[in-house]
Amino acid sequence: MEQTKGKLKLFDLISIGVGSVVGAGIFSMLMSGMAMTGRSIALALVGAMLITLLQQVRSIFMSSMFALDGGMYAQQALILPPVFTGMTAVVFVFSNFSFSVFGISIAQYLSQLIPALAPFQRILGVVILTAFFLVTIKGTGFLAKIQNVLAVCMYAALALFIVFGLIKGGTAEAAATPYFAGGPMGFLMAIAIMSFTCNGATNVINLSADTHNPKRNIPLGVLISAGICALIYFLLGYVASSVVPFAQAGSATLGSVAQQIMPGALYIFFVVGGAIFALATSLLGGIAAISAPIVAGAEDGWLPKSWAKRTKTGYPWVVMLVMYLIAVVPAALNFSLDTIVSFILVPGMILNVVTICLSFKLPKNYPDSWAKCSLRCPYWLYCVLLVLSMIASLITAVFSLLGLDMIGLLGNLLLTAFLFGFSFWRVKSGKVQLHSIESVKAET
Hints:
By secondary structure, the protein is mainly alpha-helical. The protein has a single domain (10-435), classed as Amino acid/polyamine transporter I (Up-down Bundle). It is 73% helix and 0% strand. The protein has 22 helices and no strands. The chain has helices at residues 10-21, 24-37, 41-55, 57-65, 71-79, 82-94, 98-113, 121-135, 140-168, 172-175, 183-194, 214-243, 254-261, 264-300, 317-333, 338-342, 345-359, 362-365, 367-372, 379-402, 406-429, 438-443. Helix 1 packs parallel to helix 12 (214-243), helix 3 (41-55) runs antiparallel to helix 12 (214-243) and helix 7 packs across helix 15 (317-333). The relative contact order is 0.20. Mean pLDDT is 87; it is low at 1-6.
């Protein structure tokens, strides 16, 4: 991104955080969760948001201790042994594959509204991805303005859905459904499944270089974003479970619920401002957040040095071009990447567990930064939160692994082996120097 230090305020971070969370997941998975637990889906969504937030405790505390231009990659580099740090750098590159899905999904929604576009979905998806990447050329300040407009429209669309749902009231059949209709296990399953729709608030950690007072505003941005999303999700779940009976949840969608409770014109606004803009904010927030860790990985020597090149204004044009190609080529070829994206599950789990274990030493290794952090708390409470973080991570990991087929499991094992081998080779080559954390090391 263009070097625009101090331009991102707390409101900008909240817009990016909320936009990164509220995406296609809640629109496609809400009813699946409701089919597991019935009317208690609203509570399950709050639980899922709490689980997701607990998983990121270490990152949130670190963002209040250090202002690292490399974002979450640099956080990992500060804690992990070099081989694991190299794995982190490559995983950030793989994450760009998911952007292709967002572009195609937006094209599909537009084709539903304008049937004449249906034969051109692939081309439309490429055009959408291209447009979003072009927005980043103007820098994070301009990107934040676009994100704010999209986020406000999304808030309005979701608010209308909730208001009309509350005014109209629920159906008698839905009201007859008891809470925890699927039993305790169904409720826990719903929490685990819905946690996949709650990720994204920590994207703002990667924007440290362009944020005003990052040690204060970034952790606040993450926490406030998560709180807003929890409230939105709770109300969406409450309205949907008040309208759709438990027995019909598996075949319903959030769009079909909107059709029942909203007038025609407002329903269209809900599809555009809710579904399409939710996808758009997730895509834009993701693009904005991923570039800094990849640039830092290139500067440290894990990735080609050429990827760290910038224009005179500071725009990392090589990385953005690489990210664009990774996202747009699969969309242009209509190649599904769901399985490939799932291959980073196991290496991501390994990195997360190792990082949490090593995070217990952070306050003692960096006492000055710990004493000055904006989220000060007793050390024992910090340790308790880390233990809860590990438990939350393991719960999500178990349910995620259960969802893998043989191809997914084999792909995860092969990619994990490749990442270890690649990182070990780069360390032995002598080309790796962790420049991204030199400022912190200098302080100590």
